Amino acid sequence: MTMYRVALLLSAAALTAAMTDGEMITNAMSAAPRAVSETATIIAMNEKGEARTLREGTGTFTCMPDNPMTPGNDPMCLDRNGMEWAKAWMGRKEPEKGRIGLGYMLAGGSDASNDDPYATAPATGHVWVDTGPHVMILGGVDGMPGHPRTAENPKVPYVMWGGTPYAHIMMPVGDSTPQTAEVPTTPAKP
Predict the structure, then answer these.
(1) To the nearest whole number, what is the mean pLDDT of the chain?
(2) Ramachandran quadrant class, 10 (left: phi over 0; alpha: psi -120 to 50; beta: rest)
(3) Total-model pTM
């Protein structure tokens, strides 16, 4: 998410067969806050990479359901600039300069590589890059020094696909594992 799952959605025919349109809409909407997803257009991709509109929206975001080719549940919502960025990525073209896109993946996501935007599985000896709930800043990122260029700690902001035209910031916004507080023990009252 990360986001990059759009290309993997090319294999989403399996998802269409496994989920009803209503289930896909619900899943896609889980990617963003309700204020964003309730007005978003919802699409699903077929095996040819063609989008099928499940629900026409009135807002500026487009949401997609989980990508069945990754191990995690990873629906996403992208604004118009984010969709243009994703189309450039899927078409292996350079995204338009000076255009910043936004994306939500509040259910988290799994990526095959932090370095290769076209990897469909982790390289030998590597694991999936699992990032919990996050937002993405798409485009213009290589000009933002100071952010880690690895996903060694996906609980803090990092750059995914750095050094490529598809570099983007992955910004975690929540922890996918529940936090527990230490409760001090007090002696029982007599």
Answers:
(1) 82
(2) alpha
(3) 0.80
